[in-house]
Amino acid sequence: MWSTKLKIALVLEEIDQISSLLEEMPQFDTLEQMEEAVYLLLQSKTLLEHQKSETAQALQQLKNTLDFLKSTQVEPPSTLNLKF
After folding, report:
1. What's the rounded Cα separation, in Å, for the pair 81 and 65?
2. Rounded distance, CA 45 to CA 42, Å?
3. Residue ranges of domains in the chain
4. For residues 80 and 55, what is the distance between their CA atoms, to the nearest angstrom?
5. What tens-digit pLDDT sequence spans the chain (84 residues)?
6. Which residue, among 34, 35, 43, has the nearest Cα to 6 in the 3D structure?
7. What is the DSSP-derived secondary structure letter of residue 78?
8. Which of 46, 62, 66, 81 has the fewest beta carbons closer than 10 A?
9. CA dihedral sign of residues 52, 55, 61, 66
10. Cα-Cα-Cα-Cα dihedral of 9, 15, 18, 22, to 10°?
């Protein structure tokens, strides 16, 4: 049951569901179940690393856009324009 839920979460890329399933990992009875769990855990790790990389790229793109927008803004005149 646990492995089926994890497989579904991996296919749907539901990071929150994967996280909660990892917190409630059951005891495995057979070597086959353990091997399947290891494979699913490796797939989960790969998915998380991919999501992390995509997020970092998106943040860098946003930073570059903000830097560009700031560089194209006209500086407002100083509020301390004193005329004598």
Report:
1. 32
2. 5
3. 1-25
4. 42
5. 899 999 999 999 999 999 999 999 899 999 999 999 999 999 999 999 999 999 999 999 999 999 999 888 877 666 676 666
6. 43
7. P
8. 81
9. negative
10. 170
